[in-house]
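Quick one: structure for this chain?
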Amino acid sequence: MKVAVIGANGQLGSDLAIAFSENGDSVCGLTHSDLEISDLHCVSQALERVAPQVIVNTAAMHHVENCQHEPEKAFAINALGPRNLAIVARDLGAVLVHVSTDYVFDGAKCSPYSEEDCPHPLNAYGITKLAGEHFVRTTTAKHFVVRTSGLYGKSPCRAKGGLNFIELMLKLAKERGEVRVVDGEVVTPTSTAELAQQTVVLSRSDRYGLYHATAEGSCSWYEFAREIFAITGTPVRLQVAAPGDFPAKVPRPKYSVLENRGLKNAGLNTFKPWQVSLHKYLGNRVKSPAPQECT
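Got it. Here's what it folds into:
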């Protein structure tokens, strides 16, 4: 099967390219230099040339603060971009897998969100990502909208400064010997490698629709950091950040745990508890150089 991965040089996109290639698929990795997803003509030209059977979109304006300051740009990329991809996917007869976010919810529920729960985003990032979901779901029938949470992977996330949370924690512990982390935000840390494998499985199905796709379980960022240091045996003084230590510039959900109900009902869920994926990531990290911070 021919697969086009949009954003193939990103944190998730790079693992998707690997996962589909290892599955025996022919992968065409497309980056921002290959197409501008907010430009329908550009999207059409690039994808018609590739003629993929599956299109996976990871491209987005991820930086929450920048989205808040530049909502028009965020809407063009996060909403109109997926619409353009959906139009072209429909015309080509291709399946579109569009990656979305837990930030479509406000966190007020305080229990895991399923696909049936009504979204209520708190910021421009969440609003534009939700708009992108609606465009995809109403434009092409052959779609998978995949919401995920707390991603980390071996490739740097350029939009967020290069280092994922794990690498940042280990870097700060080494440099300072003391780390303060917020304990009031609950998420599900999810490995990009695990999400990529799940995406391959989902792409082989014809159970189109909206899916939540995260590791099993949940934790606060403080608990996640504590587990990182425990597994690696890192000597560090870990403290809960005091209120006001890291004032939020943009409203964010305090609880954004997703329940993979759709995947489980379809018999397609491949995720393991988040601790298992973290152990695997850290084990592979020992075998290879740690990701370098972007410059």
